[in-house]
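Minutes, project huddle
Topic: does the predicted pose make sense with magnesium ion bound?
PN asked that the exact inputs be recorded in the minutes so nobody has to dig through chat later. Recorded below.
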Amino acid sequence: MKIECIKTHHIKCQLDKPFGFSQWSYDQRNVLLIEIICSDGTTGWGECYGPADVIQGGVEKFYAPRIIGMSAYSIDQVWHHMWRASLDFARSGVMMAAMSGIDMALWDLKGKLLGQSVSQLMGGAAIDKVPCYATGMYFQDLPENMLLKVLVEEAISYAEQGFKAMKIKVGKNPDFDEKLIVEMRKALPTTVLAADSNHAYDLPEAIRIGKVLEENNYYWFEEPLSPENPELFRQLQDKVNVAIATGECEQTRFGFKKLIEQGGVQLVQADLAYCGGPSEALKIRTLASASGLNMIPHVWGTQLNLAAATHFLATAYPEPGRAETKPLFLEYDRTENPLRDELYKVNVQVVAGEAIVPTTPGLGVDIDLDALNKFTFNTTETK
Ligand code: MG
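Predicted holo structure (tokens), as shared on screen:
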């Protein structure tokens, strides 16, 4: 069964209301989807995380012509063919995001060809529901006292929907962040809480905020520091007793080997649409496991990446093993995203804060081609 055709779909939409985090604000969504068609007409879909128009060039001009005609079953062979072809200039970055989307589409395709779900291909699901954490509480252009109130109300609304875990944004400024961390805990005394600064702090600020998170029983502190300063993570870990999470900017087993060896990281957060795809994510999980660490994917984008991460977590063995298993939470972005909520006729079902692991062949989500048409900005086709 050969790869016959590779299409890319740059989809985009304007948002009703912009939202911000420590670095900037979003007012639109852009995603690159990959569609791979094999010789019997079966189609697999994947998605890439990163600048859609730039990644599109990488797929169309570079990788697609090189893998047409290869076996649709031989995912690892295709991956290493692409890797070797671009090793001299693209060991990481947007070209790896391009490879990730192709790899994800091949997992979907192989599952459909074999009549197996992606979790079956990954070794079998250990659970049929994955607990989610709601990602939200992004910044808005409001006075800080009003923003604080709005964010706490948003978090309470997720608790009312059944989410037992959620993640807030910090990194606006340390004074505001401290107040937000404390107010959230007061409002939600039993909820699992995490905080994400998107690498907004220097070391003294990260120590200060880390101590507040520790005092308020937060589960993890995400991207406290810049990924360009790995030596600071270990110094932070020595000063605070809260799990440090990072990895959404990192790629490949080679990148994560360095990240894990640097120390100071307890939760590894590769994104399956960016780190090299599900194939590479499995290798990264093995590396993490060998160091006694858990990998919980970063998830942003549409249903394909969400489905891939759901299958991935359903097949995880939490470290360390014990009878009362430690939950590994699936990131479930709750910010406005029509490309996630209006593009598919079959979505990942999330009920009372838990994602039902799809059991149909492939990733188990299904794109509505009329909706795809509506959101499409640009497409390419390589045969
Ligand atoms: Mg993050």
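Observations noted during the meeting:
- Residues 3-115+369-382 form a domain with the Enolase-like; domain 1 fold (CATH 3.30.390.10).
- The chain has a mean pLDDT of 97.
No decisions taken; revisit at the next huddle.
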